[in-house]
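Table S2 (continued). Query chain:
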Amino acid sequence: MVRQLAIAGLLDTLQSGETAFIAGSAGEPVELTQVLVERPEHARGVRFITSFVPGINGRCLASPAVQRRMQVFFMQPAFRDARQQGLLEFSPINYFGIHQYLQDAATPLDSLIVQVGEPDAAGLCSLGPAVEFMPGLLLRAKRILAVINPNVPDLPGAPRVSMEAFTAYARSAAALPQYDAGRSNDAATRIAAHLATLIPDGATLQVGLGKVPSQLLPVLRGHRDLAFHSGMLSDSILALLDSDALRVDRPLMTTVVAGSEALYRQLPSLRTLHLAGVERTHDPQVLGRLEKLHAINSAIEVDLLGQVNAEVVDGRYVSGPGGLPDFAQAAHRQADGLSIIALPASDPAGRVSRIVAQLAAGTPVTVPQHDVDVVVTEYGIAHLRGVALDERMQRLIGIAHPHHRDALRSAARDQLASI
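Corresponding output:
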């Protein structure tokens, strides 16, 4: 018989010196992580690996009081103190690389903490809207500690795990973590209109999070035969469900759905929604077989070579690579696919250009120039695939904010003269 414990009791089964994994995105067991933050006497000396995502999972589980450590794949401002104290490890790895790391026998994994829905008549619990790295971790972990939450929707297209696999479980009725793209603006609306012209009927789409995807999907209602194969889907997908835009057979594949409570309530009725682990959603071989893959992602800045920074602002990490490199590379390698980067040309006031002459020294290149086919801002579309360097620079300058174009032209001349 599997033991039922309180949330704090579940944490007290963890031993000092062990490593435990806790999922992020919509899979974070928020009542458990809240206990960790508010009551540091629990999980003394434990090292947590998490897939916490900026904008969704903001709690830092590291604690100097009890030497509790944390490893993350996305950096956030809330984690900086723990990083300075030597209690937080930041590993900027792409999503498929995270899967490989977590499956490596050299990566310690003692306990897995997983949030699931209520068991069905057969004793099987749905992983709900957050699958991520769970399929492989469920096979690797020495102990599986479950948080059973009735708010986790029972999804027909999501993997399940048997109650018999659990060492112990606790119950929670906490709301699932939510994601809100925020209010739209004129730049996002204009970018979405440009993007819609790049998407052919029959395309398979990967879309990142943010204002642009939330504006883009409603604009695609007039398209036909679209499918989604993405790392994350959110409320914006609802705009297409009552249209004729989606492919009839398995049009929605993702590893996570994150959004509003209204979205989570609607998920069980979406029979065409399929969730799978990263080993499937981000596998290069799987992505290479998708039809007309168009990967649409945002970034912090793009330089005149076409290099993409999606991780650092003013020299500080605010995120990580995520699935962006996986999908950009796969889409670029297809003759009928496109790797698209969409971003506002500047900050709202027009003072800081997001098309820059060069990435600053030490800035990570999230996507190299050779994996970027198109860059889109509110000022237009820059097609870069197969384009010579000088023309590439001019096209990017042409979609920069008008206030910054002269400075960018001067920088381009200097760069070209030094070749």
